[in-house]
Amino acid sequence: MTRSARPYAAGAENARPFDGLDVETPVAGFYRMALRSGAAPVGIRIWFGPPLDPVIGEEMDRGHRWQAAANGEPIDLEQVWPRCAREAIDGREYRFLTERAAWARENAPTSPHANPTRRIDPMTAPPPF
């Protein structure tokens, strides 16, 4: 058996371009994901801007950086990116998820939406709302 004289990379210029996601660079926007397997979904917001003060929540006079929030609470960007990128949502859906979690923390503390890091137990969880 003889080897073909055709170069291995022949035709590479006709190959279709890669349309995938660059995981090194976050994409600003809104996403939905579960923070752990079997947990209720949360709204994730990713943006590039000045950091927020952890005590009072106002913008600090610091260099801009990539940041993330889960249901309105700051979360480490590496904990959610790029896993959250598979399900993008709009701002309205993000606000719904955030408000539902805030309502659950105050009015239904045993609800899976009150603590998104806890698995949903179908035997004790209240009906979905």
Characterization of this structure:
The protein has 2 helices and 5 strands. By secondary structure, it is of the alpha+beta class. The chain has a domain of 85 residues. A hairpin with a 6-residue loop joins strand 1 and strand 2.
Task: Report Rg.
Answer: 21 Å
Distance between the termini: 67 Å
- Range of helix content: 10-25%
Going across the biggest sheet, name each strand in turn.
4-3-2-1-5
Report the total helices.
2
Unreliably modeled segments: none
* Strand percentage: 15-25%
Shape: flat
Briefly note the structural class of the backbone: alpha+beta
Number of strands: 5
Series of H and E elements: EEEEHEH
Mean pLDDT: 85
Set out the fold topology.
Elements: E1 29-34, E2 41-49, E3 65-70, E4 73-75, H1 77-80, E5 88-89, H2 91-107
Antiparallel strand pairs: 1-2, 1-5, 2-3, 3-4
In short:
The chain has helices at residues 77-80, 91-107; strands at 29-34, 41-49, 65-70, 73-75, 88-89.
Task: Please name the defining characteristics of this protein.
five-stranded antiparallel beta sheet; 129 residues; alpha+beta; flat; 16% helix
